[in-house]
Amino acid sequence: MGNSISASIVFQRKKNPTGFPSRPSIVGPATKSYPVCLECLSILRREGSAKCPGCSFPLCNKPDCLSGRSHSGECRQLANLKGDFVLDWQTRNNIVYAAVFVLRALNLEREDPEEWKEVDFLMPGDTTDLRDSFAGDVLDILGRALGQPADEDRVLRIMGIRRTNANAMSAEGKQGNLLYPVYALMNSNCYSNTFYTLTEDEEEGGGRFKMEVRAQVDIAEGEEITTRYVCSFDCLPGRQIKIWQNWRFLCRCRRCSDPTDLGTYFSALRCRACPGGEGFLLPAATDVLNPPWRCDSCGHCEGPRHVTERLSECQRLVKEGLFASRPAELWERLSRELHPNHFLMCTLRQKRFFVRDRFDPKVERDLEDMVATGEKLLEVVTAIDPGFTQRRGRILKVLARDRMMLARLRRELRLIGEKEFKSALRLAAAECKTMALCFLNG
Ligand SMILES: [Zn+2]
Ligand SMILES: [Zn+2]
Ligand SMILES: [Zn+2]
Ligand SMILES: [Zn+2]
User: What is the three-class DSSP state of 368?
Assistant: First the structure.
C-alpha cells in the first residue's frame, strides 16, 4: 500500500517543472460575492477597508493589497466604471464582482495566449440559464469597463467554464474561485481515487493557492485518475442534486449508479409498507434526477417528493439541537426512519464518537460501545471512500486509543487473558500504522 503515497501527483510548480502549474490560471471573486479585496479576496467590512486610488473598489487597508499585482491588471478598466457601483455589504448580491473574474479571463486571453489556450480548452457546460439570468448585467459592466461592447458568447463561455471547472476558495474569511486548467481535466467520481488540498501559498501571497492532488488508493497504470466534486459523506440524491445544480450533469459514477451506495445503504430509508419494517426504500433509477423510490423487500413505491419530505424532516431533527439535549431520543426517532448506515445516522454516529458526552473511560461498557461505534463508522467510510483519507485517519486515531484502553481495563478486571490482550494491542498498532499513512498523505 506504500505505493499509493509515492503515486501522489503533486500539482506544484517547483516539484514539477515540466507540467502542472502550481498556481491557478485565473483567480477571481465568486459569481455571488460579498465585497472582497480584489487583491487577496478577503471578505471586507465597510469599516476598516481602503479604497483603491485607481478604481475606488475597496481593498484591505494594507500595503500588500493596496499595491498588489493581482488587481493591477484590471484596475484601469474598472476605473472606467467611475465608481458607479453600489456595494451591498451585508449580502452576496454584488454582481459587479462576477464581472471581475470574466475581465481577468479576457485580460489573460490578451496577455498570455498560451495559458489562455488551456483555459479555453475547458468545457463551459450548458449556459442557457446564465443567459437568462444575470449575464446581461455582467455584459453591461464589462462594456463600460472595456469601453466597447463585450462579446456575449465569449462572456457566457467564460462564465460557463468558471462554473463547471473552477474550485471554490476554502480559506477562512476569503471568497473566490480558482481555475486550475489541468486539474479541471480530471473527471468527477464520487468513488474517486484521489483527493485534493488547497492551501494558501505563503511565498506567492495575495490570494495565491497551491493545489495538491494526492492518490488515496493505489492507481494502476492506465487507470483514469478521478477527483470528486462533492463530499463523499452525502446521500445519493444529495450528491446528484448538488452536482446537477453546480455542474449541470447527472453523475453516473460507480457509486451513483448503485442505489445501495456500494452495498452500504447510505441513502436508504425504512419502508413504511413492510409489515415488520424489514425493507428499505432505494432509488428505483439512478439515471434521472428525483426518481421514485422502491422497497427492496415488498416492492412498495414512493414518489420522490414524499421521500424528500421524510428526509428533510430527519435533517431538521439533526439540526434542531436534539443531539445536545436528548441524543437518545434523536437516535431513536431517526432509527425509525432510516437505515442504520444512512448518512444522517453515520453523521450522528460520528458526532457521538468524537464528541463524548456521558462517557466514562473506566466503565467497560462505555468503552466497548465506543469501539463498536468507531468500527461501524470505519466500515461504512471505508466502503464509500476507501484508502488513505483524512476522515479515516481521524477515526482510526480515536479507535486505536479506545481499543487499547478497553484491552487494559479488561485485563485488569480479569475478563481477558494475556493472549487476548496482546491480540487487541496488535490490532490497535495496525490501526495506528494506517492512521499515520492517512495523515502523511494529507
Ligand atoms: Zn486584501
Ligand atoms: Zn483599483
Ligand atoms: Zn457520483
Ligand atoms: Zn417494503
Answer: helix
Cα(405)–Cα(122) distance, integer angstroms:
53
Residue 99, CA atoms < 13 Å, CB-side half-sphere: 25
**Which ligand is closest to the CA of 52, given by its number?**
2
Q: Are 161 and 122 in contact (CB under 8 A)?
A: yes
CA distance linking residue 53 with residue 78, whole number of Å:
11
> What is the spatial distance between Cα 219 and Cα 231, in angstroms, rounded to a whole number?
21
Q: What protein residues have CB closer than 5 angstroms to ion ligand 1?
A: 37, 39-40, 42, 60, 65
Distance CA 135, CA 142 (A): 10
- pLDDT (0 to 100) of residue 6: 29
CA atoms within 13 A on the CB side of 138: 26
**Ligand positioned closest to the Cα atom of 43:** 1
35: nearest Cα among 15, 52, 53, 16: 52
pLDDT in tens, 54-72: 999 999 999 989 988 889 9
Is there a contact between 81 and 145 (Cβ–Cβ < 8 Å)? yes
Helix, strand, coil percentages, rounded to 5, for the chain: 45, 10, 45
Residues sharing a CB contact under 8 Å with residue 164, sequence separation 6 or more, in sequence order: 122, 123, 124, 125, 184, 247, 248
Other CB atoms within 10 Å distance of the CB of residue 134: 17
The rounded distance, in Å, linking the Cα atoms of 169 and 227 is 17
pLDDT in tens, 373-420: 999 999 999 999 999 999 999 999 999 999 999 999 999 999 999 999
- The residues spanned by each domain of the chain are 9-227
The bound ligand whose nearest atom lies closest to the alpha carbon of 189 is 3
Cα of 254 vs centre of ligand 4, distance in Å, is: 25
How many angstroms separate the alpha carbon of residue 310 from the centre of ligand 3?
A: 23
Rg, the chain, Cα only: 26
Report the separation in Å between the CA atom of 271 and the middle of ligand 4, taken as the mean of its atom positions. Answer: 5
419 Cβ contact partners less than 8 Å away, ≥ 6 residues apart: none
